[in-house]
Amino acid sequence: MSSVLASASLWQRELVRFFRQPSRLAGAFLPPLLFWLVIGSGLSGSFRVGASRGAAAGGGGLDFLEYFFPGTVILLVLFAAIFSTISLIEDRSAGFLQGVLVAPVGAGALVAGKVLGGATLAWLQGIVFLLLAPAAGVPLAPAGALAAAGVIGLVAIALTSFGFAFAWKVDSTQGFHAVMNLLLAPMWLLSGAFFPLSGAPAWLAGLMRVNPLTYGVAALRRALYLGAGAEAGVGAAAEAAPLGLSLTVLLVWCGGALVVDWILVARRARRR
Fold first, then answer.
1. What is the DSSP string of 132-188?
2. How many domains does the chain have?
């Protein structure tokens, strides 16, 4: 019971800290929104997924503003996950983590509280952005909204757990940002969020297929069109992976990252 209470306290602490710092919300929400509006609008007149080159500007296929929307949701979740895991470095510098490590609650409680707290914040921000789906032309049905919320939750846990492992090993926020930009920016660009897998060179398509975030974007794209019968949107996701495979990859990613986080925390706790 003490471990559950410790996890709940750490989870609550993450939420309280976030809502006391509204600048974090603006910093995570506004850049993806501007990115989607500016780049999506700029390319929507000349880029259509599923259309022939000659018909790209005239019609047919999936408008880029609509195609780009799921990837922007994932980008927002990614930003939120990065901001939330930075608190791990701040807590270590302030001595808070040292106090948690010597408490009789176990490494799992710390990992669960911090990861679930950060993932909850990322999930909430992703859900808010999801409300813009009709403005992007995504015919969001109730079944699609529920499925998309579940996929966003899995991606939030995966990215927060992924960031936790690096934040645990890095000593400064500057170093953490450098590592995250080196890893997460290419992961997002090669996830099918910005351009489809079809038509990419073989070496680039290979990188996209081994990128776990590709399956998060594909799962979200399929979920958004669930029950809406929009063939163009579903076809854009089908080229990457079916929904079952995408969810399996996400679950394995979440589980593997959490195990790595637990091992890292347990090793440091044993040195105390």
1. THHHHT----HHHHHHHHHHHHHHHHHHHHHHHHHHHH-SSHHHHHHHHHHHHHHHH
2. 1
Give the max Cα distance, the chain. 66
Single-letter amino acid code for the residue at 246: S
DSSP 103: S
DSSP letter assigned to residue 45: T
In the block, tokens 């000349």 appear at: 46
Residue 147 to residue 141: CA distance in whole angstroms: 10
Kindly report the backbone phi and psi dihedral angles of residue 225, in degrees, each rounded to the nearest multiple of 5, phi listed first.
-100, 10
Which helix (H) or strand (E) covers residue 62, if one does?
strand 62-63
Coil, strand or helix at 63: strand
Q: Taking CA 11 as the corner, what is the angle to CA 84 and CA 260, rounded to the nearest 5 degrees?
A: 65
Under 8 Å between Cβ of 241 and 218: yes
Q: Bridge-partner residues for 63, per DSSP?
A: 48
Classify 5 as helix, strand or coil.
helix
Helices (DSSP H) in the chain: which residue ranges?
Answer: 2-19, 22-44, 64-94, 96-102, 107-130, 133-136, 142-169, 173-189, 202-210, 212-224, 231-238, 243-271
Reading the chain (272 residues) residue by residue, the pLDDT tens digits are: 477 877 788 888 888 877 777 676 666 667 777 777 777 776 666 666 654 443 444 444 567 788 888 999 999 999 888 888 888 887 777 766 666 666 666 777 888 888 999 999 999 989 988 988 888 888 878 888 999 999 999 999 999 999 988 888 887 777 887 877 888 888 999 988 888 887 788 888 899 999 999 999 999 988 888 766 555 455 555 566 788 899 999 999 999 999 998 998 887 666 65
Provide the domain limits for residue 210. 2-271
